[in-house]
Amino acid sequence: MPYKEREISKLYYTMGEVTEMFGVNASQIRFYEREFDVLQPKKNKKGNRLFTQDDIANLKIIFHLVKDKGYTLQGARDYLRSNKNEARENQRVVDSLEKLKAFLLEVRDSL
């Protein structure tokens, strides 16, 4: 069996890395932090926000609900409160499908 490298993930992501991931301004991330109590990034002594993998997953769910599904902020908050586990599972499925799509596109381009 060939050696398979594991993906290396960081424990904490800076605000700059998170804004680059989502392609938005830092002010929008800070706004969502104030609006959604599921976002609780840690802050270092200087006050810089440090986002965990859970924070990134919650941000993905929020962006999916607000941007893709068209939920209002209040509607997204209510949905997360009542269906948090279901929303996380749906986001895992979406992430795996996006990885599969990227792989298939890469295979298509190599042919």
* Class derived from helix and strand content: mainly alpha
Q: Using only CA atoms, what is the Rg?
A: 16 Å
Order of strands in the sheet with most strands: 1-3-2
Strand content: 5-15%
Biggest beta sheet attributes: 3 strands, antiparallel
Average pLDDT reading: 88
Quaternary state of this entry equals: single chain
| Unreliable stretches | none
The H/E string reads EHHEEHHH
Number of strands: 3
Number of helices: 5
Rounded to the nearest angstrom, the distance between the terminal CA atoms is 26 Å
Q: Which percent bin holds the helix content?
A: 55-70%
Gross morphology:
globular
Domain HTH merR-type: 12-82
InterPro entries: DNA-bd_dom_put_sf (IPR009061), MerR-type_HTH_dom (IPR000551), MerR_fam (IPR047057)
Protein name: MerR family transcriptional regulator
Keywords: DNA-binding
Overall description:
- Strand 2 and strand 3 form a beta hairpin.
- The protein is mainly alpha-helical.
- It is built from five helices and three strands.
- GO terms for molecular function: DNA binding; DNA-binding transcription factor activity.
Q: Summarize this, please?
A:
This protein is mainly α and 111 residues long. It has helices at 15-22, 26-35, 53-68, 73-82, 84-110; strands at residues 13-14, 42-43, 49-51. Strand 2 (42-43) and strand 3 (49-51) form a beta hairpin.
List keywords for this structure.
6% strand, DNA binding, 3 strands, 5 helices, DNA-bd_dom_put_sf, MerR_fam, single chain, 3-stranded antiparallel β-sheet, mainly alpha, 111 residues, globular
